Amino acid sequence: MLEWMDAADPGRVHTEGRMARAAVEHAREQVAALVGARPREIVFTSGGTEAANAAVFGAVSSGRGEHIVCPAVEHSCVRDPSARARVTLTAVDRLGRVDVDALTAAIEPGHTVLVHCQWGNHEVGTLQPVTAVVAAAHEHRALVHVDAAQAVGHVEVDFASVGADLMTVSAHKFGGPKGAGALVVRRGLRLAPFVLGGEQERARRAGMENVAAIVGFGAAAAAARSDEGVVERARTERLAEATLAVDGVVPYGDRAADGRLPHIVCFGVEGVEAEAVLLALDQAGVAAHSGSACSSESLEPSPVLEAMGVDAERSLRLSVGWSTTEADITHFAEVFPGVVARLRSLRA
């Protein structure tokens, strides 16, 4: 990325501009290859949040309908813009998996313009029945947006084969730079741009391209290894083994290897509140997350865990990535039992 920190405007015809354009288009090819799309289907954005908002705005502005169907476990960057339209939230099971029958029943033929379905859940890792949702929505002529931000770079994602109309990708979720993402738009689908004021991205997203971030995005896509999920799954299984060995800890989400994303595991820790666990782990050099209200900028607990019917205030989410080492896993396994025991004794 350093080479392109002072890149010229890719829209200019001088030599420096053409070099920047070539770098952007090379990155577009790299991202497209990773997600099973055509390069021209890739629209670069400032991240997954903008991409999801652009998908909703574009669909609602298309005039195809005014109603959206959204599973209750979608990320807030999907739920919140959808709430600006008439939206129906649909149920999930105890594992956080979308109920395809309930989702299909919520579709209003002639009115439903967009149906959402994430590839895998961002809090508990549960994989979703994307192909079945796409088939059901298309039967009723509704567009389908798939939030694949948590999945890309961790499991195989093929936009063409799944048949979705729109897909969200975020670079930093698999080692790319923060502030870079993409909306994948099916060939032939015309949507109104979310960001106006220029003809960049073939008039689909205005604003000068962040060449350095886009180049980094492409590099991360090219570097993504096909065996990364195998390594990540082995590490999260070790995390799960260490966590579940402690009394009063229960798993949230699908624990089956073929039913979850490989890099995320989530648990409920009975007898202590999430904030205390997170702070104690942080003092021990472990960065973790929770769906409780205390661990985010929101004043409300995770709507994902609420929809699943589990206790968000006792949740602990652990994830691994490109920078995780075996020593990190060993360290967590050593400190976690003592952290929980000490907090429970204080509570007693």
Number of helices: 12
Query: On the 0-100 scale, what is the average pLDDT?
Result: 95
- Inertia-based shape: globular
The span between the termini is 52 Å
CATH topology of the largest domain: Aspartate Aminotransferase, domain 2
Please indicate the count of domains. Answer: 2
Describe the structure.
With 348 residues, the protein is an alpha/beta fold. It has 2 domains: 2-223, 3-Layer(aba) Sandwich (Aspartate Aminotransferase, domain 2); 228-347, Aspartate Aminotransferase, domain 1 (Alpha-Beta Complex). 39% of the residues lie in helices and 14% in strands. The chain has 12 helices and 10 strands. It has helices at 15-35, 48-60, 76-82, 100-106, 130-139, 159-162, 200-203, 211-223, 228-244, 274-283, 303-308, 326-347, and strands spanning 42-45, 67-71, 86-90, 112-116, 143-147, 166-170, 181-185, 249-252, 264-269, 315-319. Strands 1-7-6-5-4-2-3 form a 7-stranded mixed beta sheet, sandwiched between helices. Strand 2, helix 3 and strand 3 (86-90) form a beta-alpha-beta unit. Helix 10 packs across helix 12 (326-347). 49% of the residues are buried. The model has no long low-confidence stretch (mean pLDDT 95).
